[in-house]
Design goal:
Blueprint: E1 20-22, E2 33-38, H1 48-61, E3 70-75, H2 78-90, E4 93-99, H3 104-112, E5 116-120, H4 132-142, E6 146-148, H5 155-163, H6 165-172, E7 179-183, H7 188-200, E8 205-211, H8 216-222, E9 254-258, H9 260-274, H10 280-294, E10 303-308, H11 322-327
Parallel strand pairs: 2-10, 3-4, 3-6, 4-5, 7-8, 7-10, 8-9
Antiparallel strand pairs: 1-2
The structure holds 4'-deoxy-4'-aminopyridoxal-5'-phosphate (PMP).
Amino acid sequence: MKQNKNVFDNVLQLIGNTPLIKLNKLTADFDGDFYAKVEAFNPGHSSKDRIAFHIIEEAERQGILSPGDTIIETTSGNTGFSIAMVSAIKGYECILAVSSKSSPDKIDMLKSMGAKVYVCPAHVKADDPRSYYEVAKRLHEENSGSIYINQYFNQLNIDAHYHTTGPEIWEQTEGEITHLVACSGTGGTISGISKYLKEQNPNVKVIGVDAYGSVLQKYHETREFDEKEIYPYRIEGLGKNLIPTATDFDAIDKFVKVTDEESAHTAREISNTEGLFVGYTSGAAMQAIKQLKEEGEFKPTDKIVVIFPDHGSRYMSKVYNDKWMEDQGFFDAKSAVQATIEYI
Ligand code: PMP
C-alpha cells in the first residue's frame, strides 16, 4: 500500500517531521513571532525517538548490532522509551538504568514496552557505583552481546538532530529563524540543531536552557567544572551534574537558568492557553523565553523557535498533579490552573 494513503510499514516511519506550531496567546504581547517545534508528535511522544532510531540504525550499518542482541542505556525516561520502542520493532533486548527522580509513569511505560528497568539513586555522584551511568556501564561489560548507547557521550546524538531536526526547522521557517531556544540535557538536541542552522546562517542566536542545580551554564561561561553549582532539583531531562561531550558548548551562544517552580507553572500555562499538552521541560523552555523577553532579547521582526521536547501525559503524577504541586510548595495564587472540578 502507498505511503501517501497514510499507511506505513511500521511506526518507525513516523519518526521526525514534527510540526512547527505558532504560539498565539502566551507570547501575544511579546516582540517577535514565536513557534514551538512540538516533539510530542513523534510516535514515542518525544524528541528522543530521533536519536534512538539514528544510533541503532547506525550500529546496524556498522555491523555491531544484530537481532537478539541487547541495547543498554542510561535514561531519564524518554530515551529509554524510544529505545524500547525501536527494540520491540527490530527484535532487540532493551535494558535501561534510570534515575529514581524519573516519574513512576515513565518507569511503568518503559516496562510496558518490554524493557528491563534498573532504578538507581538520583542524588549520588556520577562516578558512584550506584549511579545510573556506572550501573549501565557494568551491565554492558557483563553482557558481551550488547551495545551501550551512552547518549551523553555519543556524537551520533548530535548527528541525529543535525540531520533531521535542524533541516526541518530551517525549511519550516523558510530560513527566517533568528533564535533557537532549547533545553540542554545531553545537549544533543541544541548542539545538532545549532550546527545545522549556523551553517545556513551564522547569525541565528542559539540559547540553551539550564536548571538551577546544574553545571552547564557555569561551564559554558568559564569552561571549568564547578561542583558547587550542583544540588538537587525537580525538572527531569534538563541540566546536568557532569559535562556531556554530546554538548557542543561552542555552538551555544548563551544559557538561561530557570527554576523548578516557574517551569512547572509555565508548563501548565502552555497547556491551558495554547492547547498543547506538553512536558515539564517545555515549561522550562517557555519560562526561559519569558525571562529573555524581560531582558529585551527579542525584536518585533524576530522569528523564535522553541523546542517542546515531550508530552504532558508523562507528568500526570507530577506537574499536572495538584497534590504533587502542593507538596513541592508550588501551588499558590500564581498558578494559571486552579482545578475546576466540581463533585456532584
Ligand atoms: N527535555 C526532556 C523531557 C528530556 O528528556 C531531555 C533529554 N534528557 C531534554 C529535554 C534535553 O534534550 P537533550 O538531551 O538533547 O539535551
